[in-house]
C-alpha cells in the first residue's frame, strides 16, 4: 500500500536490523510502522526462527507477519568475510543498526562498534541482550522468560497459593523492543538537534543498550522503593492489585467474566450502590483504599454475589450507567467483533499465505500510537526470506547481477 510520506514521521530513516526472535524485530517493527525503511538481515536458508513459531499451516507464521510487517528481507551470512563486508557496506547507507545477539557476537564477526563507527561515524547502534553489554552477567544467555523472572515480574503473576505463572505473551521481549525504539528515536532527535555542528559525538553516546531484565524491571512501579522504604514484600494476589480494592475479575451468570476497577473513593460509593449494597458505600470503615484492602475478601464476595445474577452485558451496562470503570475479558473473537477496535483502525487487513490455495485477507494489530486521528495503515506483510536481497544489493550498493549471483552462490555453498 502506498501512503503519503508526510504522514510517516520516520520516512527517510534507514535501519539495518540484525534481529532474531522478538525483541530486536519488535524495535524494528515500531520504526517501520512509522515510516523507516527497515532492512532485516536474515541467515541463509532458515532465516529468523520466528518464521515457524506457532506455524499451524502455510510457510510463515502469523507471529512473524505481525512483528516483521513493513520491512524488507535480505539474506547474508554474517559468519563469512563476504557477508561481513556487505554488512559494513550497508551500514554506510543506514542511520541505525539494531541487533539482539548475545554480547560479543557482533565483535566476533568483525561487526563490533569499532568497525561500525569506522564504516559510518554517525550511525546509531541499538543493542538488546538479556543482561546488557556491561556488568558481571553481561555474557549470560537469557530469553524473555528469564528476564521476566529476574526483573521481578514473575513473582507477582498468578494466584497466591500456586507457583508463579507467566503472562500469555513474550511481554519482556515486547517491552524491551519498545524501549529500544524509543532510545533510537531519542538518539536520532539528539543528532538532528546538533545540526551541522563539527563536533561529532562518539558511538558510545549513540549506543542504545537495552537489557531485557531492566526493561521488565522498569515496569515494576514502586516494587523496590516500597521494599526499601517500608520493608514491604509484594506477593502474588491473583486478579487483584496489592493495596488497592476493590479491583478484580468477577464471573457472571452466563459464564463470562468482567474486570471492574472500582477502587477510587467516590467510584467505590457509586459502585456499591449500583450493586444494591448502599450500607457498604456508607460504611465509615471502607472510605479509603487501605481500609478496603483489609476487607477485600468481603467486598469481592459481595460483588460476585451480584455479578452471578446477571449476564456479562447486563453487568457492564449497569456499571457504565453508574460511572464505574469495567470491561469484558475479551478473547480474540471478542476483539474481532468489537466496534471500538474497528473505529480506530486497530485491526487492519493484509493478504498473507495461510496454507490455503490463495492468500487470505487476515486482520493484524494496527499501529500504536494513533497519529492524526487514525492509526497509520499497514503497508506490507512480512517479506519472504531474502525477498529484497537483489534489490538492496543493487540499489544501495550498486552491485550488478553477476556480483549478486556470486554472493548468493557463495552463501548456498556455505550452507551446503
Automatic annotation (TrEMBL):
EC class of the enzyme, as a word: transferase
Keyword terms: Transferase
Keyword flag Translocase: no
InterPro entries registered for this protein in UniProt: CoA-transferase_III_domain, CoA-Trfase_fam_III, CoA-Trfase_III_dom3_sf, CoA-Trfase_III_dom_1_sf
Keyword Methyltransferase carried by entry: no
Record-level Gene Ontology MF annotations: transferase activity
Gene3D superfamilies, sorted: Crotonobetainyl-coa:carnitine coa-transferase, domain 1, formyl-coa transferase, domain 3
Domain of life: Bacteria
Documented EC number(s): 2.8.3.-
Pfam families with a match to the protein in the record: CoA_transf_3
Annotated protein name in UniProt: CoA transferase
Organism taxonomic ancestry: Bacteria, Bacillati, Actinomycetota, Actinomycetes, Pseudonocardiales
